[in-house]
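COURSE: Structural Biology Practicum
ASSIGNMENT: Worksheet 4, Part C
STUDENT ID: 0417
INSTRUCTIONS: Below are two proteins. For each, the amino acid sequence is given first, followed by its structure token string. Answer the questions at the end about the second protein only.

PROTEIN I
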Amino acid sequence: MPPKQQKSKAEKAAAALSGGKGRKKKWSKGKTKDKLNNAVLFNEQTYEKLRKEVLLLASICFKAVKLLRYPLTNLLRPLLFLSVSAFAALLLDKQLHNLKRRALFYL
């Protein structure tokens, strides 16, 4: 094997500058979350959807409809639910139309 040739200082500097800076390894791709298009006001479609879903379900996940604080406390609650207890972030109600299950609402 022939001996290795020594590089000059200029060649070493040129080789160091020619390569781009390596990027840091990214281990996780990261989960992307879909942006929600939250409505601010009720229109007829969302209000009717709310009324139908409240009548069907014993408990409702509030991620589906983000506008539930006002209609539950003021419009629908006196008609559909009997209040059991209320705290700052939790309302515990019984449904009036069948009374077989308690509905748990997180606001």
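PROTEIN II
(use this one for the questions)
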Amino acid sequence: MQHKFTPESIQHQASVPYSNPEQLLSRQFPIFQWASNGKILSMKPSQYSGVTNIKISSVKSHVDIPKYFIDFPGPLIRGKTKPKTISTWLSNTVELINGDSAYDPNGKILWQLIAKKIELMDDKKMLPKLHEFSAKLFDPTDLLAFIQNSSYNLSQNSGMMTQQQMTGFKLDFEGLAQVLTYLRVGDHSTALDIALKNNDFSMAMVISSLMGKEKWTEVVDLYLKKEFQGSGPDSEFAVSLLSSIFQVFIGNGKSLVSDFSSNPSKTQWAIQNWNIVLAAILANGTSSTDSAATNSLLVGFLVDFGIFLYNKKEFLAASCCFILADIPLSENELLPESNVVFKSIGASNSLDSILLSEVYEFSFNANGAKFNGFISLIPSKITRSEVLLLQDEYSLASKCLDACSQVNKELPKTSALHIKYSYIIGKLKTQATDHSESWIGKPTLSGVWGTLDKSFNKLIGGD
């Protein structure tokens, strides 16, 4: 008779004690312990002898820390650390990461944006413009290849389009008279319907501009769909991209993001092509004569689009938006009731996040205000110090802890966070100092001879 396994039977079996206690050896061991001196203790008893060996090994032999983490030129201090030094390190790191096929593509874009921000810090002429980051979001050579492919599709499908479709439509005299009549009495909707029925999109756009951004956007979408209809497999992509560009620059970016959120097909499109959308929009930000107004429109869109991506669990893509908008790292909500907090770049417990966040902090534009650093980065900087201690980098860890102390001074002295961070920093600082004294602090041969020389001089001089 075949036994039937049920959740109840499995639970019953789990509660039955082991008949052979030696079976516990395979479940309880090996024993593993982190030691305070940068060592690891491990023990695995043998089933064939009564002798048990305890192995002592260094953390370095078990924990694989990327070389670029150890080579990071931090702590980064404004006025002392040179941007060129960071740029050199970033260049080597980006090259290494780009060669890693397993690395998240959005993460690669993130590194390139940060590298560009540091590169532009050396340009003393002016503040960086957003369009300068476009090429880092999407490679222009890839975009040119896409355009050429789309042009080929258009030419291949040109036989499907009639000559009437290739030329613009225009209202006749009677139609124009009707439109003018309705406009005189303020009936915009009827005037617009007449223009659209006759496919006169030039007139339709003029009329819709009197009806607000939403209506104008609808007319633009209709026009784009008609123009690209039957032009190949990329026609929907072209319509969506052009529509996005137009909406942002007429100040309708918030509505665009709302469409991304509410329409499932647009949601998927925006997530898959977020970097192309941003690259195209930023690249078109150079033609406006009112750069301040354009920059305001772009920053508003970047924040809204970043929140959209964050809510869709695209955290690295969202970080790219917030970095471009120069949003400070903080434990506070980005916007009221948004439930979005931008306290670090990427996952705060990852090694790459620790580095990226500190470089972003260094590049952050504080608009002339006194700025010692982001308080939200104290935990990640402490983590970096701990990792450096495990790697026997005691001097560097001590410098990082000193930088943490400076930022910690920004907190009220009686606050729970200040007390907590002060305790942790002090404890790690003591650990770093003890190791420095026991190893680096040993007297050198030259120091010994120097001391003896002074003693002989005193002896000869009768002291």
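ANSWER KEY EXCERPT:
Q1: The chain is about 60% helix and 5% strand.
Q2: Confidence is low (pLDDT under 50) at residues 1-14, 157-167, 439-449.
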